[in-house]
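[[Encoded backbone]]
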Amino acid sequence: MSESRQETVRQVFRCHAAGIAVVTATGDGQPVGLTVASLTSVCLDPPLLSFNVRSRSSVWRALSRANRLGVNILTDRQDGVAEFFARSLVQQSAEPAGHLFTWVDGVPVLGAVTAWLVCERVDLVTAGDHDIAVCEVIRGRVVSAGPPLVYHQRRYVSVLPTQAVEA
């Protein structure tokens, strides 16, 4: 793709708001995580989700060896958590984050998130310089119904309703 087309795609997707999640697993004996804005539900029967990640990511290389992953939906107050897990594996290792995790079925999940899922990776597709991971949901929990953390125009933002929602 030409540089001008790549820049156009970047600019267009900066206009697209995306929810933020952190994918977690045990890598080399330590809990590690990766911030993603590409999480999506694939289907409900069976319950599948997907996310995309740069194939060369040092954190992804560690996470991709795990069959089970945690998917953590961040609250609007967890931009610092998103920033931490956007770092490289070396940077994360320099400041261990083990205290942030609880363990569910042997998978590290983050505390105080909006919701979490424990998943098993069932497929991995390479698309250009990214991998698309497809995972089956094993179990999950909604922790709080607060506003999610969203990425828009190269920064983290909170989302508030534009009008009252009737129950």
Notes: The first helix runs from residue 3 to 14.
